[in-house]
């Protein structure tokens, strides 16, 4: 999903999610002031392109993975530093498992989880075999949103 004004309802939803994650990012950074200082240009922004995923009972992304990238495609910039998950509903026994932290983040409606995109936070989805799970997932990059949009326009 991306901020695209051609569909007003989708645009409103995408804009609401990006604004909410941006507010969450500011809180994350207030709790970790050194994080911004070590980023290039000391700037971070929420990517305006993200995933909205609905999983049927028993479905999910069960493979261990991390969210870093080394691609230089315009929509996959190489300066991805954080990832985020927004749980859109509460689902018992579902959520996200973080391997090295030996931690399970429970899927609770409205909960936003922000974490490093690097291999330090390898994770996978935890599945419920009886209930649907809907999440929005995306990334936070070093740099500015304006610089990213200029890069897309090339």
Describe the 3D structure.
The chain is α+β, with helices and mostly antiparallel strands. The chain has a single domain (8-153), classed as Sandwich (Jelly Rolls). The chain is built from three helices and eight strands; from the N terminus they run ααββββββββα. The chain has helices spanning 8-31, 33-37, 145-153, and strands at residues 44-46, 51-55, 80-87, 91-98, 103-107, 112-116, 123-126, 133-142. The strands form two sheets. Strands 1, 2, 3, 6 and 8 form a five-stranded antiparallel β-sheet that branches. Strands 5-4-7 form a three-stranded antiparallel β-sheet, with no helix packed on it. A hairpin with a 4-residue loop joins strand 4 (91-98) and strand 5. The two termini are 21 Å apart.
Topology:
Layout: H1 8-31, H2 33-37, E1 44-46, E2 51-55, E3 80-87, E4 91-98, E5 103-107, E6 112-116, E7 123-126, E8 133-142, H3 145-153
Antiparallel strand pairs: 1-8, 2-8, 3-6, 3-8, 4-5, 4-7
């Amino acid at each position: 999903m991306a901020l695209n004004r051609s569909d007003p309802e989708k645009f409103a939803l995408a804009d609401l999610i990006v604004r909410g994650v941006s507010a969450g990012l500011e809180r994350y950074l207030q709790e970790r002031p050194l994080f911004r200082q070590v980023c290039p240009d000391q700037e971070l922004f929420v990517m305006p392109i993200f995933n909205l995923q609905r999983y049927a009972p028993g479905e999910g992304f069960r493979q261990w993975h991390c969210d870093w990238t080394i691609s230089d495609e315009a929509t996959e910039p190489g300066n991805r530093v954080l990832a985020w998950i927004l749980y859109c509903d509460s689902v018992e026994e579902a959520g996200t498992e973080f391997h090295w932290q030996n931690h399970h983040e429970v899927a609770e409606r409205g909960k936003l989880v922000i974490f490093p995109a690097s291999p330090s936070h390898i994770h996978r989805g935890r599945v419920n075999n009886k209930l649907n799970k809907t999440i929005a997932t995306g990334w936070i990059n070093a740099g500015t949103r304006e610089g990213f949009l200029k890069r897309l326009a090339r």
